Prior knowledge:
- Chain A has ten helices and four strands.
- Chain A folds into two domains: 3-53 and 162-294, no CATH class; 58-152, Alpha-Beta Plaits.
- Chain A is elongated and about 100 Å long.
- By secondary structure, chain A is α+β, with helices and mostly antiparallel strands.
- A four-stranded antiparallel sheet of chain A has the order 2-3-1-4.
- Chain B is α/β, with parallel strands linked by helices.
- Chain B has a single domain (2-219), classed as Rossmann fold (3-Layer(aba) Sandwich).
- Chain B contains seven helices and ten strands.
- Chain B has helices at 41-48, 74-78, 96-106, 111-124, 140-153, 170-185, 197-203, and strands at residues 2-10, 16-25, 30-34, 56-61, 64-65, 81-84, 158-162, 189-193, 206-211, 214-219.
- In chain B, the strands form two sheets. In chain B, strands 6-7-8-3-9-10 form a six-stranded mixed sheet, with helices on both faces. In chain B, strands 2-1-4-5 form a four-stranded antiparallel sheet, covered by helices on one side.
- In chain B, β7, α6 (170-185) and β8 form a beta-alpha-beta unit.
- Chain B is globular, with a radius of gyration of 17 Å.
- The two termini of chain B are 26 Å apart.
- At the A-B interface, α1 and α7 of A face α2 and α3 of B.
Amino acid sequence: MTTNTYLIKEGYDNLKKHGSKTFSTMLIICATMIVLGIFIILLQNVNKNVQTVRNEQGFQAFIDDASTEVETEYIKDNIKIIPGVKDIKYIDKDMAFEDAKSVFKDQEYLLQGLEKVKPFPASFVITFNDINEASAIKSQVEKIDGITKVKYNETTIQAIITISKIANIFLLGIGCIMLIISMFIISNTIKLAVYSNKREIYIMKYIGATNSFIRKPFIVEGAIMGLLSALISFVLISVSYVIIYARLPKIGTSLGIFGFMPYSQLWYQILIIFTIIGLFIGVVGSAISIRKYLKV
Amino acid sequence: MIEFINVSKKYNHDVAALEDINIKIEKGEFVFLVGPSGSGKSTFLKLMVKEDDATTGTVIVNNTNVNKLKEKDIPFLRRKIGFVFQDFRLLYDRTVAENIIFALRVVEASEKDIKFQLKSVLELVGLDGKENCYPNQLSGGEQQRISLARALATRPPIIIADEPTGNLDPKTANEIFKTLLDINARGTTVLVVTHAKDIVDGLNKRVIALDNGKVVRDDARGGYLK
């Protein structure tokens, strides 16, 4: 058995030896991770929905009825070169009329007799890469000759930007606070485990053990606790999400645009974050707790 | 092997735990360190293993200037000193063999060396056949033997025994000292802090007496009292 294998085995044995302490520490880590996981899921879902809404946002630039085909092409080319424009779609007068028909499906009589006139102007639907650039793009489009009007739902776009920013700050803030609180609780729990090994550490110091030799089993113990907690929390969160998600279509419909992400898009993020946090909490928590007992 | 040159240790401004100590212990010597409680014996040992630092003067152990030793090198100094405590300081959830192997693991001994040393120190202290017992299943004397075996396992050139027989009956105490003499006969330097007057008188070895932090006596062959 090499020294490292021995130290890993010691860490694992310690874990079993401190059964009840291990259990209570893991319970705290799991509880923290599950709360964190819920926040991550909420954050991801909010961001995803905001992103979807953002991507769907665009504005409509109406073209002067007198514009020729060549002029329309010219307008299109001019819009295309504006930085930040993602896509541009031409809606001719026929399509505009069809759109109007679908809008006034129940009051079709309003459009009767207008088929030949086709009163609705042709337009370009412009989407952009970054919603924050919307105002700048709008003002440039307005300057192009042949554009009569730009319809743009500024209030909605501003509301989306604000909501998304607030949600991100709020959820990240809560996540950070949770992490700090749990680090504190866990480091105290591990401190108790280290305290019960005080005598052993003292003997080891007198025999001539290096600090890293003493520290390693505790770090292994912390790492195993962190990783096991991460795995348990991951399984619990995954099962809960999948069960809740299965009931979601109804809720989604009643809420309109809001839809939850399928778990296949989320699980790996949760697993990676949990693993990193579990290891971090276990290793750093143990290392901090043992420090003061090494000074003999 | 062990040298204190003009060593003083003050814990606060006025009280000197040790004052101007000059002692030289050669390789292979057997020395008793005696004196009443509070005379500075514990401080003397703490300075040797750098649990504390001397306020002034130089402490040399096994050719190493302890004062100048960096923190990361302290474990390597301590590996040269086998420590035997009055209260044994054993790991009670581990067997006799595991307690000894524990010390060998600390110094990163090889598997082969672990096996060999375990067998040889168990024989030396007379615990062969009891390697699978737990300390609580053994008598006080046997527990002190485990402590002794653990100290010897890494073959240190120096053994320090701090009141090794303080908790033992006279017969068991005699046996422990017999083992210490045996170890000394094989070339290990042995320093024993003790109040066991009869044993000190009976063995007629070098005696260093401390009182109020000062060396009051250093006899090449002497007794507990002058």
